[in-house]
Amino acid sequence: MNPYQNKKRWKYLLLFFAVIIATSSLWYTDFLVQGISKSERTRAEVWSQSLKKLFETDNDEMMNYLFTVKDSLVVPAIVTNDKDSITVYTALDTTKTYYKIEKDKVYDPSYFQRQLRIMKSQHEAIVIEMNGKKNYVYYKDSNLLSQLRVFPYIQLSVIAVFLLIAYTTFNSSRRAEQNQVWVGLAKETAHQLGTPISSLMAWVELLKDKFNAEQDPLIIQMENDVKRLEIVADRFSKIGSMPILTSHSVYETIKDFVDYFSVRVSDKIEFTVTGDEQQEALINIPLFDWVIENILKNAVNAIDGSGKISVNIIENLAKEQIFVDITDTGKGIPRSKFEAVFQPGFTTRKRGWGLGLSLTKRIVENYHKGQIFVKDSEIGKGTTFRIIIKSSLNYVPTPK
C-alpha cells in the first residue's frame, strides 16, 4: 500500500471513530434526557393531583401537605379551563402577572400566552377534573432539561473546533519541518553533484581533444547528458528559494526538452509539439523543464508499447494566459483520481515514489503562480494534462 492510500485509510478510520464517539455521546445524552423528561412528567402529574385535591379537601393538615407538594414543583406549568383560559400558573416569571389585581407586578397576558404555546408544543396536557369541569395542565421542560438537550451539540462543537485548530497547527508545523528537511536534502544533493559533474565535463573535453571528436554523435550525446546533470543540480539548488521568472518562448523551451527527451525513450512513441512559436510566458526554464519532464515521464509510463504524446500550446488573450496541453494515448486515469494524482505518495507503479506530479504541481502553482490539472482522461484511450501560466504579453523587465 502506498503512503497516499495508507493516509487515506487512516483518515477514514479516524472519521469512523469520531462518528462513533459523537453518536454515543448523543445517544447517552438522549437517554438522560428521556429519564429526566419522564421524571418531570411524573412530578407534573403529582402537582396536578395535589392541585385537584386542594379543591376537594377541607382538612387543614391535608391542605398544608398538599401545598407543600404543590410548591415543590419547579417545572413551569399553566392550568387552563375548557375554554382555554388560564386559571393557575406556577414557576414562571415572578415579575409578571396574568391578573390586573396584582398591582406590584407587570400585567403581561401576552407573556403567559407565549409560554402556553411553548408548553403545548412540548408536552401533551394532563387532564384533571375540578368542580365537575375538565381542566388542562400544561408544563414545559425545566432549564436543566433544556440545557441538557443542547449540551452535547455545544460540547461536540467545541471539541471539533479545538481538534481543527490543533490539527491545523500540528499539520502546519509538520509541513514546515518536512519542507526544511526536503530543502536541506535538495541543496545538499546539488552540492554533492557539483564535483562529479565538473569532473565529467573535464573528461568530455579531454575525449574531444584526444580523439579529435568534436562532432562525434556519441560525444555530443554524452555532453548533452552532462549538461542535463548540471541542470538537475541547478534545479535542486533552487528548491526553497523563489526563482526568478523571465520571458521565454514556451514553444522553444518545450521543443528543446522534447528533442532531448524523445531520443532517450522507446522509438515506438511518437512526440509532436504544436502551437504558436512566438508566444512567450514568464517562466524559469530549469524548473519549467522539470514540470514537462515529470508529465512526459508519466505519459511514457502510461503507454504500453507504441503510442503518441502531443504537446499543444494555446494562447488565451482575454486573460493573458498560455495553456499547455499534454496528451498521451496511454491507459488513462479514473475520474475519481483526477485530484489524487497530485497527492504526495500517490502512484500506480510498484516501484514509484509518487512525488513527480506532487512536485510538478508545487512548481507550477507556488513558483509560477499558475495552475495544473487533469483536463480530460478516458480509460484505455489516454489523458490530457493542462498547464496554465502567465503570458508575458505586457511584461516589462525590472531594470537592474
Automatic annotation (TrEMBL):
UniProt keyword Cell inner membrane, yes or no: no
Enzymatic class: transferase
Sequence ranges assigned to domain Histidine kinase in this UniProt record: 188-393
Keywords: ATP-binding, Kinase, Membrane, Nucleotide-binding, Phosphoprotein, Transferase, Transmembrane, Transmembrane helix, Two-component regulatory system
Membrane-spanning parts: 12-29, 150-170
Catalytic reactions of this protein: ATP + protein L-histidine = ADP + protein N-phospho-L-histidine
Keyword Transmembrane: yes
Source species, domain of life: Bacteria
Catalytic activity, EC: 2.7.13.3
Gene3D superfamilies named among the record's database cross-references: Histidine kinase-like ATPase, C-terminal domain
InterPro entries for the chain: HATPase_C_sf, HATPase_dom, His_kinase_dom, HisK_dim/P_dom, Sig_transdc_His_kin-like_C
GO molecular function annotation: kinase activity
PANTHER family assigned to the protein according to its UniProt record, in alphabetical order: C4-DICARBOXYLATE TRANSPORT SENSOR PROTEIN DCTB, SENSOR HISTIDINE KINASE
The name this protein goes by in its record: histidine kinase
Native organism: Pedobacter segetis
